Amino acid sequence: MFIIEIKYNRPLLPSKSDIYVSRDILTEYREVPLSLADQGKINHAQLKSLVSGIAALVSTAKVIQPRKKVSLCRDPADNMLLECCIEAKAAILISGDHDLLQLRNVPFNLRVLTPRKFIEEE
Model-level pTM? Predict the structure, then answer.
């Protein structure tokens, strides 16, 4: 895992954009940083920074409860992100996850972009 400092002089998301999360995603956001720290993959300062970044992101997010289950990803754990996208009627999912980026023929209108690609397109 790499922690990269990015200096960016404009908002990362257009003002008309909304961020959506589900309870399952919030649980993952809570558990993964702690797991990374327990495994020694990040130090305490990185953990603190990661938790602060996640908190800032979700502080403006809308929490939704997906009603439809899907099984589209090679990694079943990633399906919760697609379920959230379906419920939110999201047009874009920003992710660095290889399995999500490799999805083709998704049966709903969704583009999966890396953070870099999203910034370049905006």
Answer: 0.80
